[in-house]
Amino acid sequence: MGRASKREQIAQAAFEQFHERGFNATGISDITTAAGVPKGSFYNHFPSKEAGALEALSRYADTLRFDLLTTPGRPPLERLRAHFEYLSRDTVDNGFVRGCLVGNFGAEVADHNDEIRSAVRSGFAQWASRLGQVLAEAKEAGDVDGSLDVDSTALFILSAWEGTLIAARADKSAAPVDAFFRTVFDVVLR
Q1: How far is the C-alpha of 36 from the C-alpha of 43, rounded, in Å?
Q2: Is the pLDDT of residue 109 over 50?
Q3: How many CA atoms lie within 13 A of 102 on its CB side?
Q4: Same domain (yes/no): 32, 120
Q5: Is residue 121 part of a domain?
Q6: Domain count within the chain
Q7: In the predicted model, is pLDDT for residue 94 greater than 70?
Q8: What pLDDT does residue 1 have?
Q9: How far apart are CA 30 and CA 3, in angstroms?
Q10: Is the pLDDT assigned to residue 153 strictly greater than 70?
């Protein structure tokens, strides 16, 4: 009988370590120690640290609760707010230490690794597209100004969110999060 694969344990540990510590501060030994496996086990499942990071990005997307953007029976702007409220609670509950893994990798690694840069770019594009879909619904329902450019506004909101996370981490405060909600929902989307 063969030995059970440790890939899932290693992949989950990589996700957690990269999210908590960042790419450069996370070593393979940090990942394998967290997974409770020998260091060589990492390379049985991932050819490189970068491959582990790409898996972590994939797993991170599953934590962003995009389902909140498509909840049936709720008005579009309520869904949009619910999505960012969930993300803000996660940020506050984790003591302002993790931020967004996509944004973190974008700032830390994208200049040095084309594959990670491509994954970051794709992640942001997919996220902005989902936000744009909700904004298009809000525009169609008359909930936002009819001249709103939904694609540009979606990109702006996502960029504002990423900046909010950086400021909240630097301040160890929810003040940037509060400013994000006031500005986006009470001014931009009013």
Answers
A1: 14
A2: yes
A3: 23
A4: no
A5: yes
A6: 2
A7: yes
A8: 44
A9: 23
A10: yes
